[in-house]
Amino acid sequence: MATRLPGAVTRIRGLVKDFDERRVLHGIDLDIQRGEFVALLGRSGSGKSTLLRALAGLDGATADEFTVSGDVAVAFQEPRLVPWKRVLANLTLGLRHDDPKAAARAALAEVGLSERAEAWPLTLSGGEAQRASLARALVREPDLLLLDEPFSALDALTRITIHKLVLELWARHRPGVLLVTHDVDEALLLADRALVLADGRIARDIRIDLPRPRRREHPDFVALRGELLAELGVVPDDESSEDLVPLKDSVLLKGIA
Ligand code: ADP
Ligand code: MG
């Protein structure tokens, strides 16, 4: 693992967010160090996207302390490319840079999309569009990169490729990363730390000190997976799912008889 650069890129204390009368975030404390890769886990509706949007300054939220130093870039679950602009123009859109086109071309090369620079977004595959979205975030050279479930719509093979790519890009640029995911394995494959959001609070903050590249079969990986799944309220019990097979068979047999 590359050496961690000193300094916090994010320091949040007592972040609160209400929607109408309902409190979704109940006082979040969160530090992210420069170059640190943090995964944010939580059940659907637990407030992960709300927290990410607050960090991006996209939604109003109140906090006792709110410091996000440097530039922030976001990539969402849907690539959100502007369909009437070519891929390169999507990257240069709103980009402040001495030579935006050269910077955008370099970012496309980094994600292996040079040959699609002049393509229309709607002609890209899901994986290509997601890589373009990553390039658009990276070309901003963010100090904090916010990723909201950016891989969940991709097929399993594409996801493996893009995980590798994200780790390479992270190692090269060393932004602080907050990756929202509901996939425990994804968190354990990528991150230095996993946070679990529950009831509007950070319920767990677990350091992931596994050697890289990570292996799902590693006993510490398996142990951490069990711990995080339990925290998320999922009982990691293979036997119960096996129980369903004979049950299903008997239901089927009953149906035939
Ligand atoms: P997650 O990303 O963890 O699935 P969200 O942050 O999207 O969860 O949502 C957290 C809660 O806040 C949910 O109950 C959701 O319905 C609610 N919520 C999110 N956005 C809005 C909004 N714009 N207006 C009202 N309620 C919202
Ligand atoms: Mg969400």
Which hetero ligands occur in this complex?
adenosine-5'-diphosphate, magnesium ion
Kindly report the average pLDDT value.
88
Secondary-structure-based class equals: alpha/beta
Main sheet specs: 6 strands, mixed
Strand content: 15-25%
Shape category: globular
* Strand order, sheet with most strands: 5-6-7-3-8-9
Portion of residues within helices: 25-40%
Contiguous runs where pLDDT drops below 50 for at least 5 residues: 1-5, 239-257
Distance between the termini: 60 Å
The rounded Rg comes to 20 Å
Number of helices, where a helix is a run of at least 4 consecutive DSSP H or I residues: 8
Say how many strands there are: 9
Q: What is the helix/strand order?
A: EEEHEEHHHEHEHEEHH
